[in-house]
Amino acid sequence: MIARVGAFVLDSDRRQVMRGDAVLHLTAKAFDLLALLVDEAPRVVRKAELHERLWPGTFVSEAALGALVKELRRALEDRNPKAPIIRTAHGVGYACAAHIERELAQPAPVSRWIVAGARRIALAAGRNVIGRDPAATVLLDVPGVSRRHAQIVVDHRGAVLEDLDSKNGTRIGDALVTGAMTLHDGDAIHVGPVLVVYHASASGISTHTVAGLARR
Questions:
Q1: How many CB atoms lie within 10 A of CB 137?
Q2: Cβ(72)–Cβ(34) under 8 Å?
Q3: 130 forms bridges with which residues in the sheet?
Q4: Mind listing the pLDDT tens digit for each residue in 102-112?
């Protein structure tokens, strides 16, 4: 399910929360708490129920729940006490108080892929790691490319590129990637010394041979 929660979009299937083109980085438990409160909204979910659903069969202190709420409020920039996103029902529990619009997630109609030399590598929904890691979606076993160099995050609205604190940096054209940057069809991505090209098309992955994608 996809839910628009105020200025944010929560995709429960892909376990992502986005604001515009930016992906919010939440711990797994913080995401679970947000998804739970959105799913139960506008009901106040009691603390005992939250503990049982977040940590089933495990004892954790009440401070653990409070820490998750603080993490969510910080990530969501939930600072307005007159219009909170996460509302505290003192002595009872918590509720999502933001305006919520729900819709069913649909498969993305657009195919997205990377061209690296003679290879065409399909990008799946969610995170696609680029680097020398054998498990990377886009494997570039080249000196100057970090093991986990960058990632492309794909959702129903498009794709964004993020550098993963690589040694030699990531660029779109001449622009250094310092945060989440939206990708467009034909964007040239410099992964350290390697040039790859991002493509997106509603008609599927092209079989056209792309020449001239050499290492730089």
A1: 18
A2: yes
A3: 138, 150
A4: 876 555 467 89
